[in-house]
Amino acid sequence: MEVILESPDNSTKSTVKYYRYQPADADRIGTLSIDKIWVSNPLSFNDPVDTVKPIENGIRRSPFDLETLKQAVKILFSGKRKNYFDTYFNDRCLDLIEYWSNSDGDDLAIYEVISAIEDHYKTLGIICLAPKFDSQIMWSHYASQHQGFAIEYSYDFLSFDPEKNFTREDVSYTNAEPYMCISEFLLTPHLAYKRLLATKHTEWSYEKEVRLVHKSKSNQFVELPQGLKLSALIAGPKMSLDHKKLLYQKAMNLNIDIKFVQNNGYTIFANRLEIF
Q1: Where are the domains of the chain?
Q2: What does DSSP assign to residue 8?
C-alpha cells in the first residue's frame, strides 16, 4: 500500500519535524550519522550579510552617561552572573568587557570589546533547518535543483536544553538596514545574540528558517543536541538512481525511514522509497 506523507503542521506540537536540504553529493550521504551532525561556519552562507552585521559604538548617543553605563555593566557581569554570559561571549570578550567597565575614560577599550565580539561570533557553528520538506524553492536552491536529498529530524522542545552546547533561534526577517550598537551586547546580550545570528532580509522569508547555534564549534561534526533525532532521509525527485541506492542503503544501516518526493503539478508529496 502506498502511503502519502504530507508536510507536517509544526505549530502546536511539542515534538515537530525539521528538514535540512542537501546537495547531490555521495560524500554527504556517506558521512551521515545517527548521533553526529555538521555545524557550518556562517561565513560560508550564500547570503553575504548573514551574521555579518557591523557593531557600532553608539554609547554616547545613549540617554545614560558613560560612567553610569560602566557601573551597570560591572554589576551585570560580576560574580556568579558572569557564568550566564558564557552563552554569548568567550573568555577574551569577558576579560575585555571587565577591563573596559573598570577603566577611566579609555575610549579605545570599547573598540577592543567590539572587535573581540565580532571575532567570537564568526567562530560559532550554525545548523540551518526548515519546517517543511515540500518547498519547491528550497529543493532548487539547496538540493542541486531537486537532485539532492533532505534529512528529516524529530525535534522535542521539552527535551532540548539551551544550557548545553546549543541554542535554538527562529530566524526573523526584515527590510531594515542592519545596525547594532555595542550597548545591546552589554545590556541585553540575549537579544543582540538573536539579532546578529538569526536575522535575514525579507527576501529569504520563504525559508521560515530555524537555527541551532553551537556555542564553540563550527565546520565540523559534533554530537547531536539533546532533543534532536535523525528520523528519515528523503530523496529528491530528480535524484540519480546511484544516489538513491546509496541513500537507501544508508537509511537501512541507520535503521531510519527512507522516502522520495514526487511532484504532482505544483504540489510535492513524499512516498516511501523501495529499491528492488
Answers
A1: 15-47+125-171+208-272, 55-121
A2: P
Are the CB atoms for 73 and 98 separated by under 8 Å?
A: no
| The C-alpha cell that represents 247 in the structure block | 541513500
pTM (predicted TM-score): 0.86
Alpha carbon distances (Å) from 105 to 100, 182, 205: 9, 17, 43
Which residues in 139-176 are b (16+ Cβ under 10 Å) and which e?
Answer: beebbbebbbbbbbbebeeeebeeeebbbbbebebeee
Strands (E), the chain: 15-22, 36-39, 55-56, 125-129, 149-156, 166-170, 172-174, 180-181, 199-201, 210-214, 220-223, 228-235, 257-264, 267-272
Please state the rounded mean pLDDT for residues 97-111.
Answer: 86
Q: What is the DSSP letter of 224?
A: P
Measure the CA–CA gap between 161 and 210, rounded to whole angstroms: 16
Dist CA 236 CA 263 (whole Å):
10
**HSE toward the beta carbon, residue 153, CA cutoff 13 A:** 27
3-state secondary structure 126-173: EEEEECCCCCHHHHHHHCCCCCCEEEEEEEECCCCCCCCCEEEEECEE
Alpha carbon 254 to its chain centroid, in Å, reads: 24
pLDDT (0 to 100) of residue 219: 94
Contacts of 247 (CB under 8 A, 6+ apart): 29, 149, 233, 235, 239, 258, 273
pLDDT digits (tens, 9 = 90+) for 251-262: 999 999 999 888
